[in-house]
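User: structure tokens for this one?
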Amino acid sequence: MTHVTIIGSGNMGQAISGLVSKGGNTVELLRHSDTGKPVTGDIVVLAVPHAAIPDILATRGDQLAGKVVVDITNPLNFQTFDSLTVPADSSAAAQIAASLPQSRVVKAFNTNLAATLASGTAGEVPTTVLIAGDDRQAKSQLADVVTAGGLRAIDSGSLRRARELEALGFLQITLAAQDKMPWTGGFALAG
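Assistant:
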């Protein structure tokens, strides 16, 4: 059994919490403001807006050492909705990994909408969680949690692939925000 801490109690935090519980793993859900509660999970999911990451790293960085840290953020420029806020040759996950050298950072869940995590499907296809990271064991540990919860998990490669995952997440969010796809839908991998 894996113990997962989720920092962030919004739609994504709630959906990931449900997935973890459904798979028989234990979960603690912390609000971003719950700074007095220590992080105890083997896996820590950062289910907050990208703009909140620097504060979390400053207040909880020491608690994240030795843990699998899952970045679900999409570093979208919410003022213009036309670009990502990280350099073209980097990603939010790479920046987090650089700030947490003693943690095993992976990118996951950012290409999923909360509704598809909760329902287990994207249209007629099972929901797939794409996972990128440099630590094979960390990716496997997260994949086990995802598949125990009834979803598909695909290893998308090294942490360098986080840039492409963030671009895909960005596209999905902008399409949904423009009512070109429903917030209950999403991209799916068939086959």
